[in-house]
Amino acid sequence: MAQLAMARTFMPQYAKLPGRVRKSVDAAIAKFAEHTHAGLHLEKIAGARDPRIRSIRVDDYWRGLVLAPAEGDVYCLLTVLGHDEAYQYARGRRFTVNQAIGVLQSHDEGKLDEIRPALEQMSERLDRRLFEHVPDKDLIRLGVDEAILPIVRLIPDEATLQVLEHLLPEPQYVALLALAAGMSPEEAWTEVAACMSTDQPPADVDPDDLVTAMRRSPDRVVFVDGPEELRHILAHPFDLWRVFLHPAQRRIALRNSYSGSFQVTGGAGTGKTVTALHRARHLATGNGARVLVTTFTTYLAETLQQQLELLVADEGVRDRIEVTNIDKVAYGIVAAHRGNPGIAGPQVVRRLLESAAEGLPYSAGFLAREWEHVILAQRITSEDAYLSCSRTGRGVALSRAQRRLVWQAIQRVVGGLSERGQSTFHQLADEAAALAARTAPRYDHVIVDEAQDLHPSQWRLLRALVAPGPDDLFIVGDPHQRIYDNRVSLSSLDINIRGRGARLKVNYRTTHEILAWAVPLLGLAPAIGLDDGTDTLHGYRSPMHGRRPVVRSFPDQNAELTALVSQVRAWLADGVEPGSIAVTGRSRHVIDPVREALKEAGIETGSLLSRAPRVRVGTMHGMKGLEFRCVAVVGVHEQAIPTQVTRQADDPVAHTHDLQRERCLLFVACTRARDDLYVSYTGTPSPFLASAAG
Ligand SMILES: Nc1ncnc2c1ncn2[C@@H]1O[C@H](COP(=O)(O)OP(=O)(O)OP(=O)(O)O)[C@@H](O)[C@H]1O
Fold first, then answer.
1. Where is the UvrD-like helicase ATP-binding domain (predicted)?
2. Which of 109-118, 228-237, 417-426, 436-445 has the lowest mean pLDDT?
3. I need a surface site. Which of 126, 431, 438, 669 has the fewest CB within 10 A?
4. Whether the CB of 242 sits within 6 Å of ligand 1
């Protein structure tokens, strides 16, 4: 019986087909898959560069292309193309086995042959080659084919290498890119090894054994076990993440077990959430384990739930995975104990803080930070404990007498809330943590997304929900996207992740052009991770290319809004769905006029969280965790970004943290864009834009 496999490249082509053609493709595949001698249906292609590429007829116009290795009975669907394109594909493409790591790879040999004379000319003229310092033996050790080597020797510079990206075999491009970035062959090997789904490279690599190479490449090829699985895969052809994990994602998500808690970091769009969802399925499969998947907001939790439904076909497994945002977890536990608790809104808290600060040499903001970052963070419940506690990380020293004043002021806030029968969510998390610690753990495993912004009280709650042990907490976050001022050292909360972590580097959302522009927004200060170590974005990259971000300056807000309306109209005219367009700004002062302007122009808008087919508009904080095809970030002028920054003289540490938070916020907003990013300002631009332009 023939074994059917499907290449990652098949899905995007299939997704684009009209429904009628898709049906014909489904029928052709089903017939092909059922047939015992599948090879009989395949047609040879005259002039095919790789004779193992065959075609399958879908109808008069469409052709499926199939890789049919000489040995065995495995057939891999590669893509589906119109007749002429299909023949062109077959005339150029060659499949090989990477000699260093044994995975399946392909390259466009036809195009490489075509551009070779131009490369030769260029390299003669420039008299400089990008890889002249790297001996052949090192290139070969990194998996560069002897057949590709002559081309590699001609490449004059990094820009030319990038032009060749889609013509070269991917693992070889990864090796070359690493060397071009100045890495030693040993460092480049680490990058190449990240393209393997196993920890060690295979001992023997047979260059002709494509089937074994396919089995080693689950990021590119899925083996289909019967019609049910085929239907499941084809039902959501846009959602490649369900089926094809990057080897690094796969190694993390599908590892049998971790001895304790584990942390996954990675820049925006590297698939941390995807990895967390696969981990949830892995943990809930088979042994009846109860898994909690939790994140920051209700909306993000709803999105996770929807993705989980796409990922997990088995209802029994799905039922064992609970997806809830962290505040709801806390609310539920407290409500079960003492009835529904009252929640204090931010205005109420602000008013109480302001009145508590009256007559004191401390601002409401100072009291708020002291309460959040010292008292609630350390769960301090008495004046004596506060007088002797450590205030590490706070920028202003307080004498005993001053601490007493501050303590009393904060007690007035706590008392005011308690009179109203209300708590903040951080207080609630603290109460829930204490309650949960008194009962048996509710879950076998807890998975946390967007972990960088959780408060210590929320971590205490998570700690209490699962017993310490193997696979207790799987923590996913990015310290470069910290947009609330919560800095947590997990080791102080009984969660040990030091030395237990992995970092994802390949961005699946945003183009190289947008990332290259946005990463410098973060500035040069290293981000501090949850394990107290510094986190870098070293090696963070995107294989996708697109338009460079557009940054526009205007004399006044009217002109800025008029241009924004034209930009949104242009996106809509290009066929972008309204719900795939987001417009964001630092505050309501910026986005309220945006809503008005779009409305006047007859463009319907909704909130960032709306599921309606409308252009989404909201503040930068609301952009966390979301993604859109096109994003406009407006009002990026110096009065708006940074904003709400503590004065250096009042508290130098808070000042630095606040500035970094503002950088992260702008970075988060910009990296939500998949295809197009548009940034505008009036007057003087935000100082952060200067780093991006540089
Ligand atoms: N293996 C994959 N194959 C295809 N698409 C992927 C893969 N991994 C992630 N993606 C896609 O990349 C995008 C970003 O993924 P995800 O949201 O998991 O990243 P993230 O690291 O959590 O991002 P952020 O930190 O910015 O919120 C999503 O559209 C996701 O579907």
1. 245-511
2. 228-237
3. 438
4. no
Locate 234 and state its tokens. Answer: 């084809």
β 527-528/534-535 pair status: antiparallel
The ipTM of this complex is 0.99
Instruction: Tell me the angle at which helices 588-600 and 557-573 cross, rounded to the nearest 10 degrees.
Output: 60
Residues 658-680 have a mean pLDDT of: 95
Report the DSSP beta bridge partners of residue 502. Answer: 264
Whole-prediction pTM: 0.90
Q: Which atom of ligand 1 is nearest to the CA of 246?
A: 1
Residues shown for the chain: 694
Q: If you take atom 23 of ligand 1, which residue's CA is the nearest one? A: 269
Query: Closest residue (by CA) to atom 6 of ligand 1?
Result: 241
Q: In 3D, which of 216, 283, 287, 223 has the Cα closest to residue 253? A: 283
3-state secondary structure of 547: coil
Residue 299 is predicted with a pLDDT of 87
Q: How far apart are CA 654 and CA 14, in angstroms?
A: 52
Lay out the sheet containing 473-476: strands in order across: 321-325, 291-295, 445-448, 473-476, 262-266, 501-504
Q: Is the pLDDT of residue 693 over 60?
A: no
CB 23 within 8 A of CB 12: no
Whether 694 has a pLDDT exceeding 50, the answer reads: no
Cα 635 to Cα 587: distance, rounded to the nearest angstrom: 9
Closest approach atom of ligand 1 to CA 625 = 27
Tell me, using a 6 A CB cutoff, whether residue 249 lines ligand 1: yes
Nearest by Cα to 257 from 448, 460, 504, 444: 444
Nearest alpha carbon to residue 403 among 366, 378, 377: 366
Residue of minimum CA distance from atom 16 in ligand 1: 271
- Asked if residues 373 and 485 have their Cβ atoms less than 8 Å apart, the reply is yes
Q: Which amino acid is at 563?
A: A
Q: How far apart are CA 581 and CA 571, in angstroms?
A: 8
Distance CA 536, CA 266 (A): 9
* Model confidence pLDDT, tens digit, residues 299-324: 899 999 999 999 998 999 999 999 99
